[in-house]
Every structure is written in C-alpha cells, then in structure tokens.
Amino acid sequence: MAFQFPFLRRSMLRVLLFAPFAFFLATAVGAAERYPDHPIRLVVPFSAGGTVDFVARLVARQLGTQLGGQVVVENLPGAGGTIASSRVAKADKDGYTLLFTTPNHTINPALYQRMSFDTERDLVPVSLVAQIPELLVANAAQPYQDFKGFLAYAKEHQGALNYGSAGNGTLPHVTMELLLQRLHVQITHVPYKGAAPAMNDLLAGQVGVKMDTIATSAQYIQSGKLKPLAIASLKRSPLMPEVPTLDELGVPGYQGILWMGILAPAGTPQPVIQKLHVAMTAVTQNADFRKRLDADGVEVVGGDPAAFGKLIRAEIGQWAEVIRKSKIKVD
User: Is the fold of 39-131+259-326 the same as that of 133-231?
Assistant: First the structure.
C-alpha cells in the first residue's frame, strides 16, 4: 500500500495550508454573529450642530436600532476632516470605529500632501447614506435674474464678480471652480472661515454669488434676500421644482453634491462590513427616516459598498484636476 502515502502527504499538506484560513474565516463569522457586543463610535469630521452632524446623529439612532446595539457620535473636527479620517484609518479593524464623511474625503488627497493615511488603501466603503445637491444662489441686488443673465454678466465683467465659500478647498469652493472651468469665466474667490460668515456677507452684498444648499438658503430665498440661479444636480429638486439644473442650462453632466457616507478601517472582516451594509440598507429604506430628511432637502440614497467605492475613486481624480488647474492651496 506504499502507493497511498504520496496521496496522504498531499492531503495533509492541503489541510495544513487551509487550516489558518479556515480558522480566520470561522473567527470572522463568529465575530460578525456577536457584533456588536459594545457601543460603536461613528466619527464625524465636523463640529456638532450642522447638517452633516444632524444626519449622522439620525443615522446613529437608526443604525443602533437595526443592529440591536448602541452607536455613539463623536465629533472630531479639524484639518479639513483629516484628523477624523486618520483616527478611523488607524483604529482597530473590528467595526467598532466608523467614519461618517463627505466629499472632503475625496478632496483632501489633492490638498494635503502628507496625510498620515491613504484615502483608498486605509479606509473601505460601507454605504452611501444621503446627499444634498448644491444650489447656486445670488444676492437679490445683483443685476441679473437667472443663470443665463449671470453667465452673460460674468463674461462681460471677467474678474469683476466675486463669490464666497466656507474656505479654501471646501466643497463649495471646488464645485464653484469646476463650474467656472466648464463655463470659461473668471470670478474672484473670497474664502471665509466657515459657511455662516460666508452667508452673512452674501446677504449683505459683499459677495455676489455662492454655492449653498436648499437647506440653508430656503429661508432667505422665501424672504427675497437671495435668488436661486440653478441647482447642481441632474434632476430638479421637489422642494424647488421651478429652479433648473445646470445640466439643463448647458453644462452637461455637471454635479455638485454634498454626499454623506460611512467608511470603516481597511481590514475590517467582510462579514462585519456586510452586516453593517445590510443594517444601513434597512435604515435608508425606513419611511420615517426618509421623510425626516426629505423635509430638509436631504435625499436618502443608500447603495452597496462597490458603488460607493466607485464614486470615491471618480471624485478623487476629478477634484485633483480641479485643484491643479485652479492652484488651490489650503490656509
């Protein structure tokens, strides 16, 4: 029976080689079944009180309900969101520290040359949650009434107009620069230290236009202090159906979207990622959750990790090109 020994040796070798993987797989599945057995931290790279923080806290409550555990929001602002992202990228790979982020995640690689983490390598997508299309608004005293009038005036007065943003490298800054590059016009950028002072100067007429959102502009539009020129999405908003999209107005495919989504440290067990994704799918399909966000002009999106990852990769390339052409530098 000596002829059987080579076969036995090969079988034993396969068992020995497969054993570590089988143990890892069983451990990961077991961890996912028990997950979560203590509170999850949802790290938000912005201060408490803003729209993103509000959505994150609503998500935390709903996600905790779906998982049968507790999700706690931790606000960690600073350095354009890189402090929060770095914290999560270096956290334990167990699903108990997650990042609730926005396009700052895809803008930062072109702004910060020495980040302590790699945007794509060290963080993996779990789920896109919601989005808010930006709205191009103008001070009511500006000498144009719609987008076509704005464009004609800007071309006739190259460099004379100005626009405000929440600061260098913020989403309203890079989306406005992308629009200006597509339109081939020059408008002077005036950066502020936050969205609130930028809005105050827009209302006072110190700057002419600004990329904003329906959520923060609606009250001023209703009072006649601002006028909407165009919405930066591929479809009109049901909250302002009379406002045309930039795509309709001759800027094909243009979008300026404040999206919100959840990322986890790379290396988090796939069963845990899948459990989080299933729970987030239930959250985004919840009627009360959708109704609460719809009222504030926030569109619930959802989606699988692969689609979210594709969005992140596309935006990293897009914003790198915009920043290079506009020579944008952080303060």
Answer: yes
Say yes or no to pLDDT of 19 above 60.
no
Rounded Cα gap, residues 234 and 238, in angstroms: 13
d(CA 69, CA 73): 13
Q: Say if residues 18 and 49 touch (Cβ distance below 8 Å).
A: no
Strands 123-139 and 209-213: antiparallel
What angle do the packed helices 104-111 and 171-183 form, to 10 degrees? 80
pLDDT digits (tens, 9 = 90+) for 297-316: 899 999 899 999 999 999 99
Class of domain 133-231: alpha beta
What is the distance between the alpha carbons of residues 138 and 210, in angstroms, rounded to a whole number? Answer: 7
- Per-residue model confidence as pLDDT tens digits over 143-166: 999 999 999 999 999 889 999 999
The CA distance from 182 to 169, in Å, is 18
State the helix-helix crossing angle for 82-89 and 104-111, rounded to 10 degrees: 100
- Identify the bridge partners of residue 298 per DSSP, sorted by sequence position: none
Domain boundaries, the chain: 39-131+259-326, 133-231
Instruction: For residues 221 and 214, give the distance between their C-alpha atoms in angstroms, rounded to a whole number.
Output: 9
Token pair of 129 as six digits? 């949650």
39-131+259-326 fold: D-Maltodextrin-Binding Protein; domain 2 (3.40.190)
Torsions phi, psi for 135 (to 5 deg): -130, 125
